[in-house]
Amino acid sequence: MSLAGELSHSEIQRLKGLGFEDWRVDENGVRIYPSKKAEYISFPKIAYEDTHLSRDDFWSRHRVEVLNQALDKHKVDLIWELGGGDGRMSIPLWERGKGVIAIEPHYEGCLKVAEAGIPIFEGTLKDLAIPHNSLHAVGFFDVLEHIEDEREFLKDVYEKMEVSGLVFLSVPAHSWLFAEHDVALGHYRRYSRKSLRRVFEDVGFEVVSCEFIFTFLVVPAFLIRRLPFLMGQRRDTKIVLAEAESILNLPRPVS
């Protein structure tokens, strides 16, 4: 078993010692919850079925690197990822030796994560009934904007965290950039630093750091996405996702 595998296995055993009940693992390596929740999640299932998302695109590579540096800075070697999707964050972290346990309500996303050997639960954090005050590090990346009742979700996260626990996340920035792309992906909102800090502090979290990444994409996003949206442009979800994929897959810099 790899170092990442040992870390994740030990974490599940630790929680079982606190009363956590592990779920049944199916033939594909996915931990199954008896009641499906995916139909209540504001993210298009088609994103897993009809597109060939790559973890090697520019956006994913940079976001993983920023997170990996933050985990190293805070000496975190294992993280629970909520809304793990198809593994764009969890798989690269796993390959870097970080322990990861993922939770994802869409089975199609779970399959890709399970193929990498990462423990993954098909469901939500609330479904797992994890003991209160038991998690040291939790992450959710481009997830919060998909949740209609963000405060209720964050309250649940807060209850599960140790007193010194850490939360790592990313969200789409600037409400004035809300456009067709957000609608297609099921976003309820975008965030400013002020609004993001407020919702976390209202729940009880202390915000340690809140920074922008990809600032150079703000102007192109406004011109390519926001302006057409303001002019009434609405297209099929498949077309929007395919366009986003082509934009993200920028060539690697030559080193």
Strand order of the largest sheet: 1-2-5-4-3-6-7
Measured between the Cα atoms of the first and last residue, the distance is: 33 Å
**C-alpha Rg (nearest Å):** 18 Å
Mean pLDDT: 81
Assembly annotation: single chain
Number of helices: 11
Report on the structure:
The protein has 255 residues and is α/β, with parallel strands linked by helices. The chain contains eleven helices and seven strands. It has helices spanning 3-16, 46-49, 58-73, 90-95, 107-115, 125-128, 150-160, 180-185, 193-203, 218-230, 237-248, and strands spanning 24-25, 30-32, 78-82, 99-103, 120-122, 135-141, 161-170. Strands 1-2-5-4-3-6-7 form a seven-stranded mixed sheet. It is globular and about 45 Å long. The two termini are 33 Å apart. Mean pLDDT is 81; it is low at 246-255.
